[in-house]
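Good morning,

Attaching, inline, the backbone tokens for the sequence recovery test we're adding to the shared suite. The designed sequence is right after.
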């Protein structure tokens, strides 16, 4: 039976360290790191994420500035807000919650954020630095959280085969680029597989570390995993609860019951990768504050 990787406990530990550092820097500089979060429209899932980001900031002493804009906000108005936030000295990090309404061009918005304040790590400058392995950048929060959890459970990653299922710009592609780097948090042999693969199991069965970010429940079943693999489930899917069909529940992309009998360690959903994502956002905001203040 696999060890269940407790993302909440790891996140709590990291947040404690972040809080201590934020308070020490506040003593030293008289300033607190600041994060601006921008939400356009009323997407209920996004509203929950934005609230959780505000709470996370409060927990560690980071100032949070929330900009909740109506769904019809024009691209020009959003760009003008981003320009203001780029120039605001008390804003060290800027995050525009995705997805944006259809009339707004997501790339135009991401490209307008000052890369030194892009704590989401989505700006092409940060994406490029992740590919090159230049650590003077922001790693995107979800793959960064996966990397932290993987390193807690695999002591020497050198030469391990890490297989990612999914090629999104938010998880699959950045994680692959991060884990192939020659540094002590990575140094893996990496395979990225996706929906065009005729047989995903051919790849997943080779994984020492398997990360699944496919966006579909049951993408990985028990017979698709090598005995002893470490499995990280990034999926968040709301499905009917088999125990009570009038209710729903959250599941990942991995069939937990089957895979936990084969893997050596596995993240649950919820309580696995999720708590790390916001924690890494807080870590990136602290990093941005230090960079911008020469600390
Ligand atoms: N929507 C889903 N995940 C993310 C994320 O990591 N950052 C932002 N800005 N929006 C998201």
């Amino acid at each position: 039976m696999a060890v269940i990787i407790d993302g909440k406990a790891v996140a709590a530990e990291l947040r404690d360290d972040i809080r201590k550092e934020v308070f020490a820097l506040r003593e030293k500089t008289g300033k607190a790191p600041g994060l601006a979060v921008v939400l356009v429209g009323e997407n209920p899932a996004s509203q929950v994420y934005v609230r959780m980001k505000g709470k996370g900031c409060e927990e560690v002493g980071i100032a949070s500035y929330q900009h909740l804009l109506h769904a019809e906000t024009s691209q020009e108005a959003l760009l003008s807000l981003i320009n203001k936030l780029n120039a605001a000295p008390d804003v060290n990090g800027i995050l525009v919650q995705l997805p944006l309404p259809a009339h707004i061009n997501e790339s135009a918005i991401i490209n307008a954020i000052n890369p030194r304040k892009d704590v989401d790590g989505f700006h092409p400058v940060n994406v490029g630095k992740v590919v090159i392995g230049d650590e003077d950048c922001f790693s995107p929060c979800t793959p960064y959280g996966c990397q932290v959890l993987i390193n807690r459970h695999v002591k020497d990653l050198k030469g391990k085969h890490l297989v990612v299922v999914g090629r999104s710009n938010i998880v699959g592609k950045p994680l692959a680029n991060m884990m192939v780097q020659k540094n002590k948090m990575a140094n893996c042999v990496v395979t990225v597989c996706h929906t065009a693969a005729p047989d995903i199991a051919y790849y997943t069965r080779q994984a020492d570390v398997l990360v699944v970010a496919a966006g579909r429940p049951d993408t990985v079943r028990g017979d698709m995993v090598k005995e002893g693999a470490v499995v990280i489930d990034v999926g968040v899917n709301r499905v009917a609860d088999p125990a009570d069909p009038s209710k729903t529940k959250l599941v990942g992309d991995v069939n937990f019951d089957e895979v936990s009998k084969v893997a050596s360690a596995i993240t649950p959903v919820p309580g696995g990768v999720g708590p790390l994502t916001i924690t890494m956002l807080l870590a990136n905001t602290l990093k941005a504050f230090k960079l911008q203040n020469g600390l």
